[in-house]
Amino acid sequence: MRVPTVRANDIVVVGAGPVGLWTAIQLKKRYAGANIVIYERHEVYQRFHVLRLDHWSLLLYGAFNRQPWEQAFYQDVTGKSVGRVRLAFSRSLYIRTNDLETALRAYASHEGLTLVNRKISSAAEVQALHPGCTMFVAADGAHSVLRQELLGSDAVTRHDLQRVVELKFETVGEPRRLSLRQLWQLNRRLPFTVTEHVGRKKGEATPVTLRLLVDRATYDALPEMSFKSPLSLGHTGLPASIRDSVTAYLEFREAELRTAAIPNSSRLSKLPLHLYAAKNFAVLHGSRAWFLVGDAAMGVPYFRSLNCGMLLGSRLAMLVGRNGGLEPKKLPKLVARFERRRAVHVAVEFNIARAKDGVLNLFKSVRAAVASAHP
Ligand SMILES: Cc1cc2nc3c(=O)[nH]c(=O)nc-3n(C[C@H](O)[C@H](O)[C@H](O)COP(=O)(O)OP(=O)(O)OC[C@H]3O[C@@H](n4cnc5c(N)ncnc54)[C@H](O)[C@@H]3O)c2cc1C
C-alpha cells in the first residue's frame, strides 16, 4: 500500500467517520499549509442510522472559505446555501450517516485531504508511518483503540442514564409523526414511557424510531438485541410486555396517522443511555501531540453526540490555527489549551444531557401519578 509522502507540517487523523472528516476539513481551513492524511479501516462507511444534525454544529467555531465545493456540501447536506443555514442557525435536520459521510468525503477530497484505507493498530504504527509529523488526531470512534493505548484502560468516566428498547422501522410516503396529544394518549395506555422520532424521507421510505424507557428488571430480562444484531418483533424470546407495547404502538399509529410500517422493516434493539468522557482529550507522546475528538473523546445521548463531536473538532482546528505552528516547542501550549476546552465542553454537554434526562424523568413521574390517580 502506498503511504503518502510526508512533509514536516503534516497532520494525521485516524478514523474517517463524520467527526474525523469534519475535523480534518476544519484543520485544513485553519492551517492551509498542512498536508493532512486521514486513515480509515473501511472502504465504505458501515452505518446507515439517521442522525440529527443541528445547523449551529456546522457554524459555531467553523471556518468558511467560500469555495464552490463548500457551497455544494452545505446544499447537499442541508438543502440550503451557507447564508441560509446561518439565517436558520437554530434549526436541525435529519440525515443518514452514510449520506453525511459521502458528502464529507467529497468535501474533504476537494479540500485536498488524503484518505488512506488502512487499519491503524497503534499510535506507534502511525507515528512510524509519519516520522516528521507532530500532530495526530484520534477520531476512531467509541471503542477507540488509540484512547486505550494513549490514556490506559481506565481512561473513561461513565454515568448511566436511562435503559432503552428501540424499535426502528420504515413507513411509506410523507413523514408523519404523532402529535403531543396522541403521544400522551399512547403513554397513558402503555406500561412504559415512550417517545417517537421521525426521520427524513429517502426514496419512498421514512425511518421512524420508537423508544421505550424500561425499568432495570425488564431490561435485564431481555435477550441480546443490539443495534448491529437486532431482533424482529416475532422473536420468541421477547417479554410479553415489550411485544404487546410495541404492537399497541404500531396499531395506534396506523389508526391515527393512516400509515403502516413497511412489512419486515421492524428491528428491535436495547441500549443503555450513558454519558462518558475520556479523562484527557490531549496528551503529549514523546515529541508528538495526540488529540481525541468525536466518540473517541466523549459520548452523550439524546441526539447530541455527532453535534458535540463536530463542535469539538471545529474548536480544535481553531486552536491549531491560533497556535502559530506545530513545532514540538509549541505543542505543550496547544495541548494545555485543548485540555482547558475539555473541561468546558464536557460540563456543557453533560449538563445538556442531564437536563434532557431530567425532563424525561419528570414526564415518567407525571405519567405514573396520572396512572395511579385514574387507573
Ligand atoms: C443508532 C445510533 C443513533 C445515533 N443518533 C444520533 C443522532 O441523532 N444525533 C447525533 O448527534 N448522534 C447520534 N449518534 C451518534 C453518532 O453516530 C456518533 O456520535 C458519530 O457517528 C461519531 O462520529 P465519529 O466520527 O466520532 O465516530 P464513528 O462514526 O464511530 O467513526 C469512527 C471511524 O473510525 C474508523 N476506525 C475505527 N478504528 C480504526 C482504526 N483502528 N484504524 C482506522 N480507522 C478506524 C471507523 O471505521 C469509523 O469510520 C447515534 C449513534 C447510533 C449508534
Structural notes for this entry:
The longest helix has 43 residues. A hairpin with a 6-residue loop joins strand 8 and strand 9. This protein folds into 2 domains: 223 residues, FAD/NAD(P)-binding domain, CATH 3.50.50; 114 residues, Alpha-Beta Plaits. The N terminus is likely disordered. Helix content is 42%, strand content 23%. The strands form 3 sheets. The chain has a 6-stranded mixed beta sheet. A 5-stranded antiparallel beta sheet has the order 8-9-7-10-13. The chain has a two-stranded antiparallel sheet with strand order 3-4. By secondary structure, it is α/β, with parallel strands linked by helices. The structure holds flavin-adenine dinucleotide. The site of flavin-adenine dinucleotide (FAD) has 30 residues, from helix 1, strand 2, strand 3 and helix 11.
Name the beta content range. 15-25%
- The secondary-structure element order is EHEEHHHEHEHEHEHEEHHEEEEHH
The molecules bound to the chains, other than polymers, are: flavin-adenine dinucleotide
Number of strands: 13
Q: What's the domain count?
A: 2
Mean pLDDT metric: 93
Question: What strand line-up does the widest sheet have?
Answer: 5-2-1-6-12-11
Question: What characteristics describe this protein?
Answer:
about 375 residues, FAD/NAD(P)-binding domain, Alpha-Beta Plaits, six-stranded mixed sheet, 13 strands, disordered N terminus, binds flavin-adenine dinucleotide
